[in-house]
From TrEMBL:
Signal peptide: none annotated. Belongs to the Gfa family. Residues 5-128 form the CENP-V/GFA domain. The lineage of its organism: Bacteria, Pseudomonadati, Pseudomonadota, Alphaproteobacteria, Hyphomicrobiales. This is Aldehyde-activating protein. Pfam families: GFA (PF04828). Keywords: Lyase, Metal-binding, Zinc. It comes from Rhizobium loti (Mesorhizobium loti).
Amino acid sequence: MDENHSGSCLCGAVRFRTRGPLRGVVYCHCSQCRKQTGHFVAATSSKDADIDIEGADALTWYGASEVAKRGFCRSCGSVLFWKHNELDTISIMAGSFDRPSGLSAESHIFVGDKGDYYAIDDGLPQFEKSTPSIKVAGE
Ligand SMILES: [Zn+2]
Ligand SMILES: [Zn+2]
């Protein structure tokens, strides 16, 4: 079955469209995600080949580490993407999707780095760091 989803930043300067099933949403509580978003990240993932991004001139990438970069809108500041430099996949922030997103939550990672002002009590699997069991894209 064909499945397409779309989304954008807050101001609409950056828009995207995905093709095919998306991975379950992974919540990342690492310190970089916390600092960039002000809370934690909820993201799905897609193959590079299965996403079209419009508004590349507004999309800005911040290389937060040696291995990955973080994409956000230069105009409104919306956090949109996370991308490993050597993989052909892209993480997409779940909240940036238009509804219905078709997404459902899957797990929590880097819970060892989580903020100290909230509890994780949704019953989903929790991992101290990342885990190889998380697929990088929808299959
Ligand atoms: Zn924007
Ligand atoms: Zn993170």
